[in-house]
Design a protein that fits this description.
The structure is a single chain. By secondary structure, the protein is α+β, with helices and mostly antiparallel strands. It has 2 domains: 107 residues, 2,3-Dihydroxybiphenyl 1,2-Dioxygenase, domain 1 (Roll); 70 residues, Uridine Diphospho-n-acetylenolpyruvylglucosamine Reductase, domain 3, CATH 3.30.465. It is 24% helix and 32% strand. The radius of gyration is 23 Å and the shape is globular.
């Protein structure tokens, strides 16, 4: 079976879960007052459909009064929605201060995510997860994969607060280190080849430009949590060297 996308020029942008609840007005008010969302629309008089959003995340609500008192079926450790965020500990402080019902967390998982779980006024469980920067390493250990080594043709430089990748489009994308969406579009032969793109990925800033020789330079800025982890590691290494000299 081919792994090529059927519509290569189609991009998936965002997803908006749609939930059926007994009262869409109550749901929208809860998400606004407790979870920090904004109300983005009501439909019907009285309202039978509502939209709320925070950043690029949106939830839609349909109304079905007959659901009052009905228990929701869900796996014991399941969620109704999972939202990828940055700053999950700050989010916990915000939501707890607003009176949110916190079910669990913030808790660090073995798979490299730090998660917070809340339950809304209609029993929906929403998880907020932040990539701690150890996620891929945790997965590699879980599946006993060898360390990730840059393939031939890809140059990697670890800078303070960022990682730089250089190579051709085919090498970078094929390595799995760089997403195709990060790269500027190809230019026609004979036209100016230098182009710059800025993208965002999971809270990271990504800067990419096409060099005059046809290769690409991609700079991925580390998140605040990744920078803090790097600084802690550097300080620990410094202390070890210092103690070794003192012996």
């Amino acid at each position: 079976m081919s792994t090529e996308p059927i519509a290569p020029n189609t991009a998936f942008l965002t997803v908006a879960p749609q939930f059926t609840v007994p009262d869409v007005v109550a749901a929208a008010s809860y998400y606004k007052d407790v979870l920090g969302f904004e109300t983005r629309g009501f439909f019907g008089e009285p309202p039978v459909f509502a939209m709320v959003g925070r950043g690029a995340v949106e939830f839609f609500f349909n109304q079905s009064p007959g659901m009052v008192g009905q228990a929701r079926e869900r796996a014991a450790v399941g969620y109704d929605a999972y939202i990828h965020v940055t700053g999950v500990d700050q989010l916990f402080a915000e939501l707890a201060g607003r009176g949110a019902r916190v079910i669990e967390g913030p808790a660090s998982r073995a798979y490299g995510m730090r998660e917070l779980v809340v339950e809304d006024c209609h029993g929906l469980r929403i998880a907020f997860g932040e990539d701690t920067g150890m996620r891929m390493e945790a997965l590699r250990k879980q599946f006993q994969l060898p360390p990730l080594v840059p393939p031939e043709g890809v140059a990697v430089r670890h800078l303070r607060g960022a990682t730089e990748y250089r190579g051709t489009r085919e090498r970078l994308v094929g390595s799995g280190m760089v997403q195709a969406e990060w790269l500027p579009i190809e230019r026609q032969p004979g036209l100016r080849t230098r182009a710059t793109l800025r993208a965002r990925d999971g809270g990271r800033d990504v800067f990419a430009r096409r060099l005059d020789d046809g290769r690409y330079c991609v700079l991925v800025i580390h998140t605040q949590r990744e920078r803090a982890a790097h600084d802690r590691l550097a300080f620990e290494l410094f202390l070890r060297r210092l103690l070794k000299k003192a012996r």
